[in-house]
Amino acid sequence: MRGINDIGNAGLPGKVSLGRVAEMLAKGTIIGLTALSLSFAGVVPADARPARRNDDLTAFLAAMAAMAIIASTVNNSHAAPRPVEPPRHRPPRPRKVLPRRCLSLVPGPYGGTRLLYRAWCLERRVESPLPQACRTSAWIDGRYIPVYRGRCLERRGWLI
After folding, report:
1. Cα–Cα distance list, 76 to 24, 80, 127, 142 (Å)
2. Is 103 exposed, middle or buried (0-12, 13-18, 19+ CB in 10 A)?
C-alpha cells in the first residue's frame, strides 16, 4: 500500500517528501503563470496597426516555443540523477498452522462436509490474532457453538 510519502513518485524507487511535493507544485504554478503571460504577450498587438492572421499565428507560435524552452530549462536545472536502489525482496510470510485438535468436521447443508474450528480451542492454542471475519456460530452437538470457518482461515494465510 502506498503511503503519503509516496505521492508523485511515478514508479521511481525511494520516497518523495511532502516538502518536495510542495516545491514541485510551486514550480508548476510559476511555470504556468510565466507561460500564460507569454502567451498573452504574443497575442495582444503592441501597436495600433491592424493585425494580420500570419502575424497573430507567428506571435502565438513564438510564445509557445518560448514557453517550451523555459519549461524544459526549469525541469532540467533541478533534475539530479537519483541513485537506483535494487528492488527489495520480502521474505515469505510464515504461514500460521491451526491445531488439528480444534477441528470439527460438520455435515454441510447440501451433503458436503464443512471444516470448522471451535473458537474456544483456537483462542487458547493460537498466539496470533484470528480474523473476526471468519468467526461465526454453528449447530454442533445440539447447540450453537462459536466457530471459525476453515476455508476462510485458509484464504487468510492459515494452514489447515
Report:
1. 13, 8, 54, 76
2. middle
